[in-house]
Amino acid sequence: MIASALGGLLDNALKYAGAGSTVTVRCVPVEGGAELVVEDTGPGVPDEAIPMLTERFFRVDRSRHLPGNGIGLSNINAILKLHGGSLIVRNRHPGLEVRMFFANQAA
């Protein structure tokens, strides 16, 4: 499921960042866990749309002409919650950064 979530983020970044953009994937340790980060140098999304990106069927207006139905990030968010993680989205100006946070699990 985590691989599917990462694949979905990569698919979104490649589809929406646009031609000539760069997509970067990295894993970083953070306090309390680790994050898988997918970031691009594309146009990003309107700041007011960020809180709605994980709602089922939500699509930013400028992406409506592209294939998709607006459930990708909502499914990714559900997968992360199922695994005790969370999804963090922010604009980079330019670009978009999406972080999948995973908390350390006690052994």
Could you give the order of the helices and strands? HEEHEE
Task: Please count the helical segments.
Answer: 2
Here the CATH topology equals Heat Shock Protein 90
Sheet with the most strands, sense and barrel status? 4 strands, antiparallel
Portion of residues in beta strands equals 25-35%
CATH architecture: 2-Layer Sandwich
Task: Kindly name the structural category.
Answer: alpha+beta
Helix content: 25-40%
Average pLDDT taken over every residue: 84
- The radius of gyration computed from the alpha-carbon positions, rounded to a whole number of angstroms, is 14 Å
Corresponding CATH superfamily:
Histidine kinase-like ATPase, C-terminal domain
Low-confidence stretches: 63-67
Task: Describe, in plain words, how this protein is organized in 3D.
The chain is of the alpha+beta class. It has helices at residues 2-17, 72-82, and strands at residues 23-30, 33-40, 85-91, 96-103. It has one domain: Heat Shock Protein 90 (2-Layer Sandwich). A 4-stranded antiparallel beta sheet has the order 1-2-4-3. Helix 1 packs antiparallel against helix 2.
